[in-house]
Task: inverse folding
């Protein structure tokens, strides 16, 4: 079974903390959805009809809630689209969607991850996704004044 990537590890968090907090940042995301959402025992949906949804539907719940936190910090989804094919590189996992989010500062990204509403919404992301890769990019090209 392949390792499921849904959260950064300690070394990734330490590197993030070492970077300029005032620099703009963009996050390139690749998403692979579970066929069916996988809510856990600690989730309010667990064992209820609300848990009987596709992974993509669970992820949509996350997007709705997390998007409000993102916008409140000056961030935005620059684009989001279906992945049609992996042309170069391994096609396993098969990515279903890609998105770029941009933040006016790295500090705003970190604030988003620490926001209680964002953290509560993250259960939907984890229930909906089989795998998630996120690469941080220079955010300057994505910043809109």
Result:
């Amino acid at each position: 079974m392949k390792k499921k990537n849904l959260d950064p590890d300690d070394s990734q968090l330490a590197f993030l903390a070492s970077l300029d907090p005032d620099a703009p940042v963009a996050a390139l995301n690749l998403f692979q959805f579970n066929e069916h959402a996988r809510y856990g025992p600690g989730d309010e949906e667990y064992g209820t009809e609300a848990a009987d949804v596709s992974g993509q539907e669970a992820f949509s719940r996350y997007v709705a809630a997390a998007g409000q936190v993102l916008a409140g910090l000056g961030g935005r989804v620059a684009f989001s689209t279906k992945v049609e094919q992996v042309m170069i590189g391994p096609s396993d996992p098969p990515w279903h969607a890609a998105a770029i989010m941009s933040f006016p500062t790295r500090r705003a990204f970190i604030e988003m991850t620490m926001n209680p509403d964002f953290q509560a919404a993250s259960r939907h992301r984890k229930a909906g996704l089989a795998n998630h890769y996120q690469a941080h990019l220079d955010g300057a090209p994505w910043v809109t004044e």
About this structure: The mean pLDDT is 92. The two ends are 45 Å apart (CA to CA). The beta strands are 25-33, 76-82, 97-103, 129-138.
